[in-house]
Each structure stands twice: as C-alpha cells, then as structure tokens.
Automatic annotation (TrEMBL), chain A:
Protein name in UniProt: Formate dehydrogenase
Organism per entry: Salinarimonas soli
InterPro entries: Formate_DH_TAT-contain, TAT_signal
UniProt lineage: Bacteria, Pseudomonadati, Pseudomonadota, Alphaproteobacteria, Hyphomicrobiales
NCBIfam families in the cross-refs: formate_TAT
UniProtKB/TrEMBL annotation, chain B:
PANTHER family membership: PROTEIN NRFC (PTHR43177), PROTEIN NRFC HOMOLOG (PTHR43177:SF3)
Lineage: Bacteria, Pseudomonadati, Pseudomonadota, Alphaproteobacteria, Hyphomicrobiales
Keywords: 4Fe-4S, Iron, Iron-sulfur, Metal-binding
InterPro entries for this protein: 4Fe4S_Fe-S-bd, 4Fe4S_Fe_S_CS, ET_IronSulfur_Cluster-Binding
Protein name (record): 4Fe-4S dicluster domain-containing protein
Length: 72, 198
C-alpha cells in the first residue's frame, strides 16, 4: 500500500489542526487554571496551622519506640 | 517547628499489615482505596524485606506541582493535605507521585475517578478540626487530639515510626548503632558507589 500524499488530503488534515489550535488558544484565554494558578483558592492560615503537640501520649510513643536504645 | 515524618524500619517490619488495617478502620476508608500498603521485595526468598508505604508528605510534593486546581497545601507540621472540594479527579497526582499515594474511589461508570483520597497523616483536612464534615471526607484528626498516626502507634514490632522527624531519626540512628549495621537501603550503592558503607 502506498501512502496518499496528495494536496487535498494534506489540506484536510491541516484544516482540522488549524481549527484545533485556534480552539485551544481561545479556551486558554477565556479560563484556564494552569494559566492563572494564583487565582485558585488558597488554604487559610488556620488550615495550615500546626496541630502537632508533644503530649504525654506522644512522649510515651517516643519512649516505647526507643526504650531499647535511647539513653535514659 | 517540628516536621512530621514516617520512617519504616525494614529490619523490623514483618508484613503483618496491621498498619493497613488500622488505617482503613480508623478513617473509614472506602472500598478499593488503601492509604497505606506494605510492599514486600524478594517475597519468600532469602533477604526478603517489607516496607510499609504511604504518602511521604514531600517537602516539594510532585502531586501539588501538577495539580491543575491547586487543591494541595502544606501545613506548618510539614504535612501535605488536599481539599476534596477543589479536586476534580483528573488523576495527574496519581501519575506524578513516586509512591502511589493518591488513590481514587471506583464510584462511577466510564472511568470516572471521583475525588482523590490519600494519607492525611491522621490530621484531617481543610474543614474545622474534629467535625463530622472533616471525618466524612478525610477521616479522623488524631494530630489535633494530641496523638500520632494510628498506623505507627499500632505497629507491634515498632517498625513504623511517626512523629517529629528529628526525634524518630534519632531513635532509628540509635537502633542502627546498636545493631552495628545499616538498613541496606536499596539503591544506595547504585546511586553512590559500590564501596559506600551502609
């Protein structure tokens, strides 16, 4: 089988490529989260704050995990 | 400021999968999702090793870098969390994560993924602490209760360590010094040199 290389086939493929490219550019210009990452919702300071506390419960975990080796 | 880390002592892990079960039960994790898994290398052969794996809460998380809706955020504890309200289920984070941490519930037909779910280091999500809304979406918030992730607290052989990175690194270092040999971390000799002391 030979590959068709006539101008008509190339034009058809080129037409869809051009239409696809134009559509992509237009869509990106209208609204794209990738184009405007700063517009995405940002986590508040309250959501980012530290929850970890070295409570007696946590200290007991560290103690029991290191009881064989850690210096008393 | 303490940075939360997981550290699995591969010389102690016996592949009991208690960490996996505890996690699923504690957070009521949906069918088809495992926030934590035990990976076994050379199964059944001499030198078999098992490692408990979950989200490693990367400092520069690749999942956050590729997310088109920027639904990920880092807490002051160094934990990587995400908002299920912002997640669109695109699956980019699944492909970006080197540990396979992001998981998707199989809720719909035609390949729809639903909202991404991953290990939260037992510290909930963007909703208010210890609320029903938070529990339904992300599971329990043990860090807010003054506790550590249940997977590590339940580990019967003390293989899985969690907590302040500096403290658990010290515990692990003391173990290595007592044993007199390192974990034989895979790939070090390939990455550095054949003569590197492990």
């Amino acid at each position: 089988m030979t590959r068709k290389t006539d101008d008509k086939a190339l034009d058809r493929r080129g037409f869809f490529k051009a239409v696809g490219g134009a559509t992509t550019v237009a869509a990106a210009a209208v609204a794209s989260p990738l184009a405007a990452p700063e517009a995405a919702a940002q986590a508040s300071d309250d959501e980012r704050r530290a929850r970890y506390r070295e409570t007696d419960h946590v200290k007991a975990f560290y103690r029991t995990n290191g009881y064989e080796t850690l210096k008393k | 400021m303490a940075r939360m880390k997981f550290l699995c002592d591969a010389d102690r892990c016996i592949e009991c999968n208690a960490c996996v079960t505890a996690c699923k039960n504690e957070h009521d994790v949906p069918w088809g999702i495992n926030r934590r898994r035990v990976v076994t290398l050379n199964d059944g052969k001499p030198g078999e090793r098992s490692v408990s794996m979950a989200c490693m809460h990367c400092t520069d998380a690749p999942c956050a870098a590729v997310c088109p809706t920027s639904c990920f955020y880092n807490t002051a504890d160094g934990v990587v969390l995400h908002s299920k309200d912002l997640c669109i289920g695109c699956g980019y984070c699944f492909y970006a994560c080197p540990f396979g941490a992001p998981q998707y519930p199989r809720v719909g037909n035609f390949g729809t993924r639903g909202k991404m779910d991953k290990c939260t280091y037992c510290s909930g999500g963007p909703e208010a602490d210890l609320t029903t809304a938070e529990y339904v979406k992300y599971g329990s918030n043990r860090l807010a209760e003054g506790k550590l992730p249940l997977c590590a607290e339940l580990c019967s052989t003390k293989a899985l360590l969690a907590g302040d990175g500096e403290i658990i690194a010290r515990i692990y270092k003391e173990r290595v010094l007592t044993r007199g040999y390192g974990s034989g971390a895979w790939g070090w000799k390939t990455a550095y040199r054949e003569t590197v002391a492990l």
